[in-house]
Write a structure and sequence with these properties.
It contains 4 helices and 8 strands. It is an alpha/beta fold.
Length: 173
Amino acid sequence: MKKKEEITWDDINKMFPEAMLEKSNQRLEKLEKLVGGIGNSNGEMAEEYFYNTFYRNRTFMNEHFDKIKRNLSYNNGEMEAEFDIVLFNGKSVALIEVKYNAKPDNIEIAKLISKIDIFKILFPDYKSHKIYLGVAAMSFSKDIVWRLHRAGISTIRPVGKKMVVYDKTVKVF
């Protein structure tokens, strides 16, 4: 039987010179930026679509909303939060999380619900308002839809030229 040759780091360095490894690293970095840019663009497109649609009709949960804000953020030094779309009227607030593709690995239901308390702390003028939660996405995995509905959170999706809201199980928080 032949004895296996052991490969050392020196052997690897001879096979793959530093310049070749550096060039590979640069290509990987460019690819990471490209893929990240595509993901960001998709997210921005979804936010733009849902914001414009809500802005046009200003209706959610059979209520008319007077104001709509996009990317409402707040930082008081101790707490910070960002809300993708927020609808306001004199008695209700709707907090809408926007995703391009909503799935279990990018939607944490407990975290969504915890945003309600954060919102009430950061915006105390609205703490006695009814608060609704919704997730708007261009597409949903079936598993996350069932979980959201079970938690009382609305799902909002485009169907053709319309925005369809599932609100049969939505809770008032």
